[in-house]
Design a protein that fits this description.
- By secondary structure, the chain is mainly α.
- The protein has 13 helices and no strands.
- α1 (2-26) runs antiparallel to α7, α7 (154-188) packs across α8 (192-212) and α9 (218-245) packs antiparallel against α11.
- The longest helix has 42 residues, at 92-133.
- 16% of the residues are buried.
Length: 343
């Protein structure tokens, strides 16, 4: 109920703030007389004109898949947790379509029409490319505040921008924390307060690595593994389980239960064959072409001394992952003993 209340308040507010900021950016025109080509039209063209040559780059495909998976909470247990609260006849198909459509509209159409055109208008297309490469953190917390200082009533719109970021972070954090909270409540019978405190403490501890190691590349490293590569890998595992282990026929019947829209039949084969093949090829191609840069960490430095902080971070993350697997193993054994006792 708390999550539902937050979403009911936050989502309409996000839409209103996003549209207000987008309208402000789209009415800027060409504020720099020395560069009349730095205008809204060219900014939108920079955002939306496709560069088909980039389709051969697996980094683009992986980044796009990671963004979609993360924003739709696929591959991190959030959807599974929320699904456990559904009734058997609840409409999964229409809910999935409406939520994914609205989410991508907000994040791609509205947010994209704010950030990228604004960067082109005030810094030009060449500098906008470098700004985009600097990452979402610098884009949101460094570049955009600088942009707002250069526009009329910039302080007010900067205030709206940070409210938007806060609400987006709040709703995302609630969703991301929900799987661990539900796991502790369901499997270890912890109360809500204790589950929230444990989950929050873990997040607080690992956020310190980002805060104090941001100059060492810790934010990029954790974002790459947690928000892109492993996210897509876990999504592959989920779709394989859904289509092959659980069975596509049973899965298809579950999708149609209570559905107010008719799902085209070819999606049955997309789920079972096309989606896993696409993700597998994408991951394999990216890993092969970027093995030295990302896997061997050459992008962080030429020698192992420069890469050592990132290596230590990877070891810590791996140990934490193994600890989670161990805790899940304990919960699984507890369930088995409980079933044996009840039978």
């Amino acid at each position: 109920k708390g999550i539902e209340l937050v979403n009911k308040i936050a989502m309409p507010t996000l839409v209103v703030l996003g549209i207000a900021l987008m309208i402000r950016v789209l009415t800027l025109g060409a504020p720099d007389p020395a560069h009349p080509d730095w205008n809204v039209v060219n900014g939108l063209g920079f955002m939306w004109n496709p560069d088909f040559s980039r389709l051969g780059d697996p980094k683009v495909w992986l980044a796009a898949a990671g963004q979609i998976f993360f924003t739709l909470s696929v591959g991190i247990g959030v959807i599974l947790s929320y699904a456990s609260y559904l009734k058997p006849k609840d409409d999964v198909a229409l809910s999935a379509l409406s939520s994914s459509s609205m989410n991508e509209f907000l994040e791609v159409v509205i947010a994209g029409s704010i950030v990228i055109p604004a960067a082109v208008i005030f810094y030009g297309p060449v500098q906008a490319v470098e700004i985009a490469k600097s990452g979402s953190f610098n884009l949101g917390f460094v570049t955009m505040p600088l942009i707002f200082t250069r526009m009329p009533a910039g302080n007010f719109f900067c205030f709206l921008w940070f409210i938007l970021l806060f609400l987006a972070a709040l709703t995302s954090s609630i969703s991301i924390l929900q799987p661990s909270i539900s796991f502790l409540e369901d499997e270890f019978r912890f109360n809500r307060k204790r589950s929230v405190l444990i989950s929050g403490a873990v997040c607080f501890i690992f956020s310190q690595f980002v805060i104090f190691g941001i100059t060492k590349g810790f934010l990029d490293e954790m974002d790459f593994w947690g928000g892109t590569y492993l996210l897509v890998l876990f999504g592959l595992i989920e779709v394989l389980y859904f289509g092959w282990v659980f069975g596509i026929d049973k899965a298809w019947e579950e999708l149609k239960k209570g559905a107010d829209i008719k799902i085209p039949g070819f999606f049955k084969y997309v789920i079972k064959y096309v989606t896993p093949a696409y993700i597998l090829i994408m991951l394999a191609t990216f890993t092969w072409q970027n093995f030295r840069g990302f896997i061997l960490m050459e992008s962080y430095g030429k020698n192992w001394g420069e890469r050592l902080p990132v290596l230590l971070l990877r070891i810590i993350l791996l140990l934490f992952f193994l600890f989670i697997c161990f805790v899940i193993h304990i919960a699984w054994k507890r369930n088995e003993r409980s079933k044996e006792a009840s039978s």
